[in-house]
Amino acid sequence: MHPLRTLVIELYDKQVIQVGSFKLKSGITSPIYIDLRVTISYPSLLRQVVACLQDICRSLSYDILCGVPYTALPFATLLSVENSVPMVMRRKEVKDYGTKKAIEGVFQPNQTCLIIEDLITSGSSVLETLEPLVKEGLVVKDVVVLLDREQGGKDNLRKHNIQLHSVLKMTDILEILKDSGRLSADKVAELFEYFHSTQVSSNSSIPSGMASHNLSFEQRLSMIRNKVGRRLLEIVLKKQSNLAVAADVTTSQELLSIASQVGPHICVLKTHVDIIEDWNETVCEQLVHLAKSHQFLIFEDRKFADIGNTVELQFTGGIFHISQWADIVNAHIIAGPGTIQALRKASEHCGILLLAQMSSKGNLAVEEYTQKAIQFAKQYEDAVFGFISMGCIGEPNFIYFTPGVKLEKGGDSLGQQYTDPKTVIGIQKSDIAIVGRGIIHASDRKEAALTYQKACWDAYVQRIGK
């Protein structure tokens, strides 16, 4: 008999699988209940469960294990012992004395942690475990479960870029119980109809903190792989400024004047060097000096979007030599990953932002395009540290820049749409607000920059609940 068939029949016979009417943690009422806690009283059965989980774990890459409390803790413990892989444990209730740790065990930031769970309905228990792991700087990409009830949990986890790997699905269990005579064909048909029609949406399963990635910049610092991204967050924290100014001007004198005036209040100065009429090496040196003096990064808004060889020449050569002075550049993904590869190859001192969304009316950065940008960013996370987007579009190990920010909402005659800092930072969950005309056209740029710095930082502080 096939091992999975044997396992399902034994789970049913030992009343781990029960048919009736049961209320689940997700709040839904289910005609079938699976209590895998019972397995700890049957060593042989427990061994079978762990052996099945082990088959999946072998194909995955990870540094440590974490079982979702409490049912999956014995499973994770046995997997840890059998494979000599360290394990950490999440506390369900964090004590208000002692170390007050949420995660027990020895680990290092950026280690990959594999979550072990008994079964999944909505995914809420997994996400409750995921949140403190991420806060501690651990990387979570995969979850291994014995049973997927096929009621939305897999899709809910995918929204957090977590891949679910299951030994069994509910359809597998029902087929085996019907074929073995444990359940009648009519009962199985009734159960199939229930699982087909009862899905649990992500809204009921995602913890509020994780849904909006309300982690502080301090907590996210160790999660950023690119060194420019980490340096940016260090500046943000030191200056208490998540404000970027877009200096879209045409003369070097005005560019340097803006940099000098707003420098103390910003974390990033965004430039369009190709519109500067009198750019030269001296201007470049003065701009870099101002950036060092006032501690901000220079972001050349070049929007690279060509084949790799051309991009490398545009980045390193010509009359601008962008790679020599820019801390940050951005790129479209329209030409594929070659654009990113060329920028990464040409300079390890420059961080990349991908254009995932745009603020202009009628733009073509649709959802499919955005998801592709996220995919590329994950593939080249050593070089790409964030996105140009209209808010948080993924996970907290990327930094989100949003353009078109102004204290007064509205737009211009060319389709630019403006959004206020409270909406962009507080509601859309972006990290860095890019302000242009609201500061550049102000009669007192320094005062305007201070006003925007405070507005953007206050929105961030309110978002994380400090």
Automatic annotation (TrEMBL):
Substrate binds at D248, K270, S359, Q416, G436, R437. One of its GO terms (molecular function) is orotidine-5'-phosphate decarboxylase activity. Its EC number is 2.4.2.10, 4.1.1.23. Pathway: Pyrimidine metabolism; UMP biosynthesis via de novo pathway; UMP from orotate: step 1/2; Pyrimidine metabolism; UMP biosynthesis via de novo pathway; UMP from orotate: step 2/2. InterPro entries: Aldolase_TIM, OMPdecase, OMPdecase_AS, OMPdeCOase_dom, OPRT, Or_phspho_trans_dom, PRTase-like, PRTase_dom. Keywords: Decarboxylase, Glycosyltransferase, Lyase, Multifunctional enzyme, Pyrimidine biosynthesis, Transferase. The active site is at D301 (for ompdecase activity), K303 (for ompdecase activity), D306 (for ompdecase activity). It comes from the Eukaryota. One of its GO terms (biological process) is 'de novo' pyrimidine nucleobase biosynthetic process. Residues 242-452 form the Orotidine 5'-phosphate decarboxylase domain. In the C-terminal section; belongs to the OMP decarboxylase family. In the N-terminal section; belongs to the purine/pyrimidine phosphoribosyltransferase family. PANTHER family: OROTATE PHOSPHORIBOSYLTRANSFERASE, URIDINE 5'-MONOPHOSPHATE SYNTHASE. This is Uridine 5'-monophosphate synthase. It comes from Galdieria yellowstonensis.
